[in-house]
Amino acid sequence: MQKTILALLIVMCTALQVQELQQANKQFDKLSQDSPVGKFLMDLAQIHAEVQGPLDDLKETIEKFYENLQDSLSQLDGEFQSKQAIHLKVLQNYESNQQDAQIDIAQSQDQLDNVLSRNKENIEKRLKQIQQNINDNRSNIQRDKLQRNQQKDQNVEHIHEHQQATTSIDEALSLVQGLSSGNIAFVEAPMKKTLDYIKQKVNSREEYAPLVDALISLSGTQDTKQIKELLNKLRNQIVDSMIQLTGDENDAQKMFEDRQKQLDSEFSEFQNQVNQATYDLASISARIDQEKEFTKQRQSDLDMYNSQIEMENNNFAAITGLYNEIRSVRLKELKIAEDAKNFAYSSQFRELLQSKLNK
Fold first, then answer.
1. Which of 153, 200, 283, 350 has the fewest CB atoms within 10 Å of its CB?
2. Widest CA span of the chain, in angstroms?
């Protein structure tokens, strides 16, 4: 009975050893097939077993290889972080340039719309108003000249009429003087004719009418003294009126000349205003052209900065994608190396190597 139990135990232990060996072979094959790293490590273990090297040396080699993979992953992370820092710095510079360009464009457009364009419109309105003032000024000069000429002609005509009336009065006085001297050559008809002529010449002035009518009523009488007094009085009034007309004409002429000087002075000032407004218009137009050119240049700069930002982001996205891809592979290799290291420290690995040596 004891022998039977011992035999069963031996069989069971042998079965367990065989099962563990089979599992070790499966893990060895799996590590060899999973990746080039796993295959390299298992090939290394195979060679080590074939040359019958110390197991501790194999373990140390695998451990060193695992540490190298860790260092490689750390180096990859460090390089990526360095590239990321450079990317962020470059991107910050591009974005700063982008913001500056956007601010310049906004300010320039505001300057164009709300300052320069309005100033130009105001100058154009001012120039138009000045031109209207010049037209009005020239019209006033022509109108004043026409009125002055008409007024002057009327005054000259009135003075001439007064002069003729004075001459007629003198003739009437001569008639009266002849009558008073007993000269019968002067009769009522010539006297009446002369008085009618005087009335015709000064009829427009009402202040002479009473005297003229009185003279006409006396013309048929022999009251030469009263006629002579009335004629002299009328003559004096006409002469005074003629002097007043002459003075008024002189004053009107002076006022006209002063007015002409004023209008000419205003015209000269308007011309100066036109020159200044024209200069201002040219200056503001040049400013607008410069501002438009500046806006155009800054828009071109903004387009360039946008392209740079897009290119930088695309490049870094490619770098990030490559980094993630490599890191994924490195992590997988590190996991395989870790599994290989753990397998190398297991009893199954030692038995597997022993079984390979015994073949």
1. 153
2. 214
